[in-house]
Amino acid sequence: MATPAARRPSGTFAPFQYPAFRAIWTANLASNMGTTMQTVGAAWLMTDLTKSHQLVALVQASNTVPIMLFGVFAGAIADNYDRRRIMLASQIGMACAAAVLSALTWAGLMTPVLLLALTLSLGIGTALNAPAWQASVSQQVGLNDVPQAIALNTISFNLARTVGPALGGMLISLWNVGVAFGFNAASRPPLIAVLWRWKPDTVPPVRKPMLPAIAAGVHFCASSSPIRRILLRGCAMGFGVAGYQALVPAVVRGPLHGSEIDYGVLLGLFGIGSIAAALVIGWARRRMSSELVITVACLAFVAAQLVLANAHSLAAAAPATFIAGAGWVTGLTTINVAMQMRSPEAILGRCLSIYQAVTFGGMAIGSWVWGAVADWRGLGFALHAAAIFLVLSLAVLRMVAPMPAGETHSIA
Q1: By the 8 A CB rule, do 380 and 231 touch?
Q2: pTM for this structure?
Q3: Structural domain for 307, as ranges
Q4: Domain of 357: which CATH number?
Q5: Long-range CB contact pairs, 194-198, < 8 A, 24+
Q6: What's the CA gap between 116 and 119, in Å, rounded?
Q7: d(C-alpha 253, C-alpha 273), whole Å
């Protein structure tokens, strides 16, 4: 499973021609399945432990706060050390945290603080893993296939989001939330084994002091007008869509009077919408400007939040989750590809970590803000406010920070 020589296959599924990508993608699908089941379990368990919408929203925030706080350091680590070993260490750490989460839940010892602490630890593992993971895509496939590989990795995650939530909700209803957490722990070893066997043919990175390395990445992002605009769009979109992402569990438990299975079904529909969008996003980006694609994605979330805010049954809420899933992949994949294709290879990990820190930082802050607004004025008001923010930010940013046109890839 060495790094492939440069080839020129084309099409959405071309990256599967590379053995390393194929093996890692397959193992990662199982891991993503465990992650989505853990997400369902944690959010639903918090609704059992507390009535606070803000604490429920903070479960989502606990997954993204570490990316905001530690992501830049993780990017410097990804550029200074072997990316495969970084991914191995983070996956092993997340497996241990998931096992502890499952054991404490089975023992009946879980509290809101413990739940947030352990989901935060899993978020730290994700923050460490993500820059190395994304920067390693170019080691798995040829340069021409990087955008398709990014899209396929998105499909992997959203295939898991289609099946994982519904399966997780079923397991929770039949047994215990600890089963979902245990599945997450058990899903990690196959991926760890594949990463252990993968031996990419890469030049060892030239290590630089941590702070100067981070400063180099920050300086590049700050001095590049296209990168600044991409980061601003990612932050604004992350803040706006967090209203939907953070409040779905509370809506299902409250106005919809749903069960854990209903919650899983809604998240499954989110995954189906994501897959549908991922299959056509490459075609859309080739025929439409990034600005138009981002606009469509934001308007999809506006529609989803408005529908969810006024839904009083599972059937009424179902279209919102499908639309939100499509908007999620359409928007974030477009921003991610734009960032990757405009970042120099030598500092790619740092640039991606800065992108993730800004985008997921917006989500983390948004989760807290919209959760607090929901406690203050109600779930419907918070969802309407999040939709209004997306509309206003889209109108302003299209003028002051338009998405860069075309795609390039820096190798300097």
Answers
A1: no
A2: 0.70
A3: 18-197+206-400
A4: 1.20.1250.20
A5: 194/23, 194/24, 194/26, 194/27, 195/24, 195/27, 195/84, 195/87, 195/88, 195/91, 196/88, 197/1, 197/23, 198/1, 198/20, 198/23, 198/24, 198/84
A6: 5
A7: 22
Q: What radius of gyration do the chain's Cα atoms show?
A: 20
Alpha helices by DSSP H, 288-309: 290-309
110 within 8 A of 164, measured Cβ to Cβ: no
- Per the CB < 8 A criterion, the answer to whether 36 and 176 are in contact is no
- Dump the DSSP string for 253-289: HTTT---HHHHHHHHHHHHHHHHHHHHHHHHHHHHS-
Assess if residue 409 is contained within a domain: no
Given a contact cutoff of 8 angstroms between Cβ atoms, the answer to whether 16 and 152 are in contact is yes
The answer to whether residue 9 is domain-embedded is no
295-324, pLDDT tens digit by residue?
Answer: 999 999 999 999 999 988 888 888 888 998
Q: How many residues does the chain have?
A: 412
Inter-axis angle of helices 83-106 and 53-80, to 10 degrees? 150
pLDDT category of residue 11 using cuts at 50, 70 and 90: low
